[in-house]
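Let's see one such:

===
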Amino acid sequence: MSSNIKALFILLVSLSISVQAQTDPNIFEKFESKFYTIDGYKINVEVLGEGDPIFFLPGGPGNSHDYMQGAFGHYYKTNTVVFFDWLGRGKSDNAKDVSEYSVEYDVEMIEKLRKILNFGQISLVGHSYGTVPAQAYAIKYKDNVNKLVLINGFHSGAMWQANCDSYNHYAKTHFPEKWRVVDSLRNLGYLSSQEPLKTVYGNFPTKYIYYHNTKLRSKVPKTSYRGWAGDVYTTIIGPDGDFDVSGSMINQDYRQKLKNVSAKTLVIAGRYDGVSTPEFAVQYKHFMPQAQFAMFEQSAHNPYLEEPKKFYELFESFMNIN
């Protein structure tokens, strides 16, 4: 076998192994929940592997950790991977008072878990809302962060509001028949967290919003689980959060502080993302010039699903995963 053919063979085998790992149908069964008591609440934490620790932070706010585990769980083979459910989400306890749901509390949860798990520096990989506490943590606890990956994220409450406005303009101009129902319900005083507006608003097509390819979906466990916590979302984003962002999210603004983040950073955006739109995502180039920026031209809000080969090659190169 010539050296060139041998090299090609090794490359094809490695790519095959990588694809198989990323599509492992049994990835969830490889993890086990362990509950740590933090501030009087039982918090679900699932840790596996050896090597440099990586915390994976899901979006929402309201999502459980599961979809991130489905996309990144296979990295237990090279790193210590940490998946957990924030307070009120997934398998973790609910708060006694919803006022305890906040960006600030989520940030402190990362730090408390880092100490409980006895880690020094950690890397953070946040998706969507998960980028918000990731950035806040990297700013507040800069010496504790090794690498930072921000996937389709938000640099401020103002950006979240602007993206809501952008999506609503898209929905209104592309689906005027549906939007007339939205308008009529809002004129009657309904908020986006209230029925029937909640269902009407949630039934808009997702193309160019969450998925450029609407046939794709995240992997989820076979067993029952709480994938979404609406009370967390309405507390952090606001009771009318699809139109008027309030809660603790509106007070977040990292734009002037991002240039001081010392962690090696990768910022990822999707060209067709209707949640974290390119208009605002590209602003990271200005606010965080030290970061590596990548636009995924065939993706919306989930590039690891829509352009997996490109995504995982970039991710593994950035994280020095061999």
Observations:
- The chain has a mean pLDDT of 92.
- The chain is about 35% helix and 15% strand.
